[in-house]
Specification:
2 copies of one chain form a homodimer.
Chain A lengths: L1 E9 L2 H19 L3 E6 L4 H7 L7 H5 L4 E6 L7 H15 L4 E7 L17 E7 L9 E4 L7 E9 H16 L4 E6 L7 H14 L5 E6 H10 L6 E4 L1 H14 L7 E5 L7 E5 L16 H13 L3 H16 L14 H11 L2
Parallel strand pairs in A: 1-2, 1-3, 3-12, 5-10, 8-9, 8-10
Antiparallel strand pairs in A: 4-5, 4-11, 6-7, 11-12
Helix pairs in contact in A: 1-9, 1-10, 1-11, 5-6, 7-8, 9-10, 10-11
The structure holds 3-isopropylmalic acid (2 copies).
Cofactor (chains A, B): Mn(2+); Mg(2+)
InterPro entries (chains A, B): ICDH/IPMDH (IPR050501), IsoCit/isopropylmalate_DH_CS (IPR019818), IsoPropMal-DH-like_dom (IPR024084), TTC_DH (IPR011829)
Family (chains A, B): Belongs to the isocitrate and isopropylmalate dehydrogenases family.
Amino acid sequence: MTQRIAVIPGDGIGLEVTWAARQVLEAVTIKHKIDLVYDEFDWSCQRYAAAGEMMPADAIERLRPYDAILLGAVGWPGVPDHVSLWGLLIPIRRAFRQYVNLRPIRVFEGVRSPLRDAEPGAVDFVVIRENVEGEYSEIGGRLNRGFPDEFAVQEAVFTRPGVTRIARFAFELAGTRGSYVTSATKSNGIVHTLPFWDEVVAGVAADFPEVRTDSEHIDALAAKLVLDPGRFDVIVASNLFGDILSDLAAAVAGSIGIAPSANLDPTRTYPSMFEPVHGSAPDIAGHGVANPIGAVWSAALMLEHLGHAAAAADVMAAIEESLMAPDTRTRDLGGTGDTASVVSSLVALLG
Amino acid sequence: MTQRIAVIPGDGIGLEVTWAARQVLEAVTIKHKIDLVYDEFDWSCQRYAAAGEMMPADAIERLRPYDAILLGAVGWPGVPDHVSLWGLLIPIRRAFRQYVNLRPIRVFEGVRSPLRDAEPGAVDFVVIRENVEGEYSEIGGRLNRGFPDEFAVQEAVFTRPGVTRIARFAFELAGTRGSYVTSATKSNGIVHTLPFWDEVVAGVAADFPEVRTDSEHIDALAAKLVLDPGRFDVIVASNLFGDILSDLAAAVAGSIGIAPSANLDPTRTYPSMFEPVHGSAPDIAGHGVANPIGAVWSAALMLEHLGHAAAAADVMAAIEESLMAPDTRTRDLGGTGDTASVVSSLVALLG
Ligand SMILES: CC(C)[C@H](C(=O)O)[C@@H](O)C(=O)O
Ligand SMILES: CC(C)[C@H](C(=O)O)[C@@H](O)C(=O)O
């Protein structure tokens, strides 16, 4: 069975790390006799500069038939975020109802956590971020623009179906892991949406009596991620809280450069999208030094989503192995390798 | 000149740490010939259990004539947050237009930061949190309660005067310190209120050409607090972002137990309120082991606000000194001291 992948390298180091992920996919799919075919799309800030749009008007329609989307990074100096992100990344997340943003966090051997006590292996959790509603709603605006009495409002929107499905995903996932869910809230300060979140999450939790659960205010939870990251298994959080916690957690694990993410439509009605957490990094773009691990790990998540668990596990084993030696780690991890040498090492390990 | 202090010990360890702060204030005001008088109010969850309200209906009126308010902690198991916090803490912040929540962060010698690289002295910054508007607005509600199509909305509200005054406070403060302001945003995802925040902060920044400034998305900023906390001087943030960053920063500094806060009305129309960042800690309440430093440091901020800078500096010097020895640190800091022994040491140092 052939599975079709839409590849959007995007901007900056997005191109380099997507190339890297493709090499690794090539090696592992040969080994496992998996039939993936790829189409590449040049949708990016560069395209915006030339054509006035990040992606064509029929982009969503064109992506729809694919089994998955592999994305590098989008964004470039001079192109405002509301163009680059809201013209590509966020419309894809929403049009394909990728309501789960899954972000695994691990402290690997060879990667130095900024935390004294974070032993390799001891930190291993997943942030499940709600990805299509919540604080990122477009509802809002400004009044009295430019005047001293100007103000802006923005509405966070939490729906029962939206919170139920993300909570259910988190509890199901926890059932396959450490059977422990931590829900991020701030119901003591944000008194309409987050008490509702708590209530719906508690309702879902009742259906999973074998999963331990607790609820932490986002301020205390952020502190605990630093004081005791080893305690977590699955963290479920709203769009904004999940964004903050997953970046923070990636820092705790030692590097944003290795952090992957999956934007999932668990109903499989639409293609899911896989992308590293890092951005396009204009400062190092084109130098061949970008850390490809975030993109490669994202590709492993894609393989898993496409039903190739053994291949995904092989990629993860190769990542673990290559992170151990300085010459197969990039400079951001204190190594001496570059993008190409890390790729060679991964490909060799998968050979 | 006599200055009058309203003392609200509140709940749990709030009582113990307020007692501690009072002892230290006693010692330092004698030394500096400062005339403070205190009235204590038993407003608390205990009062709620007995009288059905956290504080009397005329509480705000009664507090108004004071020069400052010293608060311990509020909250107790069984009393919901919307009663304990929204029945005491938040109404005081709002009625007295304490629009600045100031939270200094320092890594002290003797306090072990969870970060490998956080050297004592190298981390010293202040989080300036907007304290009366933003994401904590009460505007919002639910529709279709209990039905499958239920949803909740909550409106964040940012006003030009509100953002201007908090930004101005931050830039003025930075002028007396390291001349560097970092503004927390998320304008790439939250597209109405935070672009407005950015615009107003940039306008204020233009009036302070001698202060360096940058703007960071909250996700990246949380990561940087862990990866490079030494780079910050003053961080200015909305109500929610400031809450998250200041708790996270307190963890980075090694303990929530030492973190202080000042809820300020810089116009001095109303009394300002000083409280440790920690809560009422029911698990250790009454055991005499609570870390009093958060409350004592808050008292030092109060002295400064009341015009007694030399006395405040003396208290800070005593805190620094006592944190160095294990027997004058509490157990949460790896010491062998308890609340009373830390107080004795502070009082002796101020003698
Ligand atoms: C208790 C809660 C509402 C409060 C807040 O977030 O304002 C607390 O976390 C704080 O930081 O003072
Ligand atoms: C770029 C931004 C809008 C985006 C988000 O917050 O969703 C990014 O930070 C991410 O986490 O994918």
